[in-house]
Design a protein that fits this description.
The protein is α+β, with helices and mostly antiparallel strands. It has three helices and nine strands, in the order ββαββαβββββα. Strand 7 and strand 8 form a beta hairpin.
Length: about 160
């Protein structure tokens, strides 16, 4: 039960674009492109994960948040760090994958989409999507579910 009427607020981290040309030569300062979107690139690469965001004033614990979002906690570390997944079908992949760090009532989310299992045993590299419409829709869904949950508890 929520004793506070404070609603969760979302703080989105603005991404740092890095074009492919700059990546070949070093960093973004090396890029000759002056456009925000780096028009000479066939796609944007990101130095920071686009789907890192913070939701403040969540009055539930991580277990309740995961359950409401439809995620399962698969690992946790000391310091309030959690590893959550949500399968998209009956297989383990593809799946949404979130790393969550809880700091008081603030939750720091880092979201991506795992397309397939890592190929080599012991390797963590995989085919993951860190930005794009599917990941953006999932981030919006997470924000909406938490906002609705907060409104329901305040009643």
């Amino acid at each position: 039960m929520n004793l506070s009427t404070a609603k969760p607020s979302v703080i989105a981290r603005s991404p740092q674009p890095a074009c492919r040309q700059a990546g070949r030569r070093g960093n973004l300062q090396d890029c000759a492109c002056t456009l925000d979107r780096h028009a000479h690139c066939d796609s944007l690469a990101m130095t920071n994960k686009l789907m890192d965001f913070v939701i403040k004033n969540i009055q539930q614990n991580i277990v309740g948040v995961a359950r409401e979002l439809g995620y399962v906690i698969i690992d946790s570390k000391d310091g309030g760090e959690y590893n959550l997944v949500r399968k998209l079908n009956y297989d383990n992949y593809p799946r949404f994958h979130i790393y969550v760090k809880q700091a008081g009532t603030d939750f720091h989310f880092s979201l991506h989409l795992d397309q397939k299992k890592p190929i080599y045993q012991g390797a963590h590299a995989h085919n993951g999507e860190y930005f794009g419409p599917v990941v953006e829709q999932e981030a919006d869904r997470i924000r909406d579910v938490i906002a609705r949950s907060s409104n329901d508890e305040a009643i």
